[in-house]
Description:
The protein is α/β, with parallel strands linked by helices. It has a single domain, classed as Glycogen Phosphorylase B (Rossmann fold, 3-Layer(aba) Sandwich), CATH 3.40.50. It contains seven helices and eight strands, in the order ββββααβαβααβαβα. Helix 5 packs parallel to helix 6.
Amino acid sequence: MPRFGNINERRNQLHEVIRLSGMNLIIDDMDHPLIIKVASIQAARMQIYFIDNEDYFKRKFTIADEHGVEFSDNDERSIFYVRGVLETIKKLRWIPDIIDCHGWMTALTGLYIKTMYADDPCFKNSKIVYSLYNDDFKQPFSDSFIKKLKFEGIKDKNLSALKGAVDYETLSNFAVKYADGVIQSEADANQNILDFVDKSKKKFLPYQGGLDVSVDAINNFYENL
Length: 225
């Protein structure tokens, strides 16, 4: 997940993983250092890896400022986050069977895995699940968003579904296009996107209720993929 600025590093005992950090990711011809941090949830015996960068995630708010104004670089933050996650997986030498992408911040994952990372042995057989939430953003991405996406292995035809101002619905539909399956994770997810999922004929798991009642259904969905 992103290491948003409202995450208290001391309280949650985050520490930098030096062996994973140190790479620069180029976005819009600018170098941005990729910092990887980790913390543990002891009760669940789970480690959480955090994607960090001072330019993108140091601010104390997640998507919008204290006045509710959405950050103008949210498009770049999404690009940096997704590519940072994929590079971290490569460095950890994980071979994921399922990559479940939660919300619009992760929407570009399928694009990158099925283009520039298509031949990477870490992702060759990975299935992409896109989990839909009621997480609409109001401010369309900058006009240069599509240019920023272009990288090794990504061709114009891969981006043809992104035209004009890329708003929430356009980005979410794009994520669905590159996913192998879609999960509706909240009851009030955007209906237009749900209609797009239906037309796409992608494998789909409708809203099952809270997490406590949906775990088995999600596990079965994964297995069927």
